Amino acid sequence: MYFTDRGIEELAERRGEEQVSVEWLADRLRTFVDLNPAFEDAVERLASFLARDDSDDPDA
């Protein structure tokens, strides 16, 4: 288990039943980077990874 898995598990436990929009997620990521600029590169990589995930696209 990676150290980051704890945060992911907490997210799933606390918010696992919720449905959120991509717009909401983008806003939360922007707020996080505003508060934690040292993590800008990591958030950029995560956002790009999520934006390019085409595994659910039947035409990909």
TrEMBL record:
It comes from the Bacteria. It comes from Pseudonocardia aurantiaca. It holds the Pfam family DUF6104. InterPro entries: DUF6104. This is DUF6104 family protein.
